[in-house]
């Protein structure tokens, strides 16, 4: 069987199905690709061997996925191995692909893994160079893949660089994107691709400056960036020198005094005490510049309250979380979603309420790339209390719903015990009514069984607000 393109699934599949339908056994088929066909004996174009009718039927979808990858492998045995697998699948071994110890299956899985690895490397190590063309600039890259992966990887570059015209050249194929259509062509030579361009010096400077000698692991680096790719990577010329000087650079880093991180956009100094005049908008601006406690330093921004200035209800939480810190808005993370669900269940409109927190900055402990919530201490709570009091003076709400112990203590007194006082109204000195209940984050920390009991109780507490508004 002669194949014009050894990596084309549709072409191989058409021939394989025809052979299967004719009952031609795998050992009677010789596969040849392109110029290799000239090595066939003179009678190779003769009729197929006369065989008993074969079995042609559907195959598992995972076989087609496997075949797509295996066909891109450089090994000339790939077509024969795939046809043996197809023959066996069609002749009753329906679970064949799950037998990973089978010789054919094991070989195909290794080949597919090698192709997948090569696709990943191509995405990582292709380097485009700018070329001045008659119709504008074109970006050209030269790459030498171990396997024929360009047809499978080219759509990734179309999505990634849809707005520019580019070509990727390899010894076996080329891919070209003109901004509208992707075309595949014949292979090229290294001399067909451009040499260095004006940006490579800048790229090497950047690479050298982000190199961290303290994290250097040569074996791991070579495993992820095999040496065979280095000759086409402009930054690779720096690697031997960076490795050689790593120990000395690391020692100088250890001996250097610590640096103090600097905010990219330092906020201007401002009063830590809110002004007696001005509305909520003025208060929000002043709070953004508060430096009364150290919480402002690691936080992204102040998370001030939001809602109508004439709101009759204030929903008071404890302190912002990770998502609130990033968004600059209260109750937008998982706790806020749980609160919204409870309000919706009761037919209450959050948009008619003023939502805020007792503490206006996110306090956290770093855990790798994560930021874990940490409770603000008494000093930090006291520093933020003036902003809460200023909000309440301007709002003069009729009802305050305290979500969590910190909020309840800020309104009802530091000795209040939340679980004893929850679920009933408390009259404040100015006539405002305050209701204490648990914070939604408390529910998130419970097991599924515990939450089934705690959720109705939380909704019952908020139902007191529903009845108060309806009265």
Report on the structure:
The chain has 471 residues and is α/β, with parallel strands linked by helices. The protein has 4 domains: 120 residues, no CATH class; 67 residues, no CATH class; 48 residues, no CATH class; 191 residues, Uracil-DNA Glycosylase, subunit E (3-Layer(aba) Sandwich). 40% of the residues lie in helices and 13% in strands. The chain is built from 17 helices and 14 strands. The strands form 4 sheets. Strands 3-4-5-6-7 form a 5-stranded mixed beta sheet, covered by helices on one side. A 5-stranded mixed beta sheet has the order 9-8-12-14-13, with helices on both faces. A two-stranded parallel ribbon has the order 1-2. Strand 6 and strand 7 form a beta hairpin. Helix 2 crosses helix 4 and helix 3 crosses helix 4. The chain is elongated and about 95 Å long. It starts with a strand and ends with a helix. It holds the Pfam family DUF4130. This is Type-4 uracil-DNA glycosylase. Belongs to the uracil-DNA glycosylase (UDG) superfamily. Type 4 (UDGa) family. InterPro entries: DNA_repair_put, DUF4130, UDG_Type-4/5, Ura-DNA_glyco_family4, Uracil-DNA_glycosylase-like, Uracil-DNA_glycosylase-like_sf. Keywords: 4Fe-4S, DNA damage, DNA repair, Hydrolase, Iron, Iron-sulfur, Metal-binding.
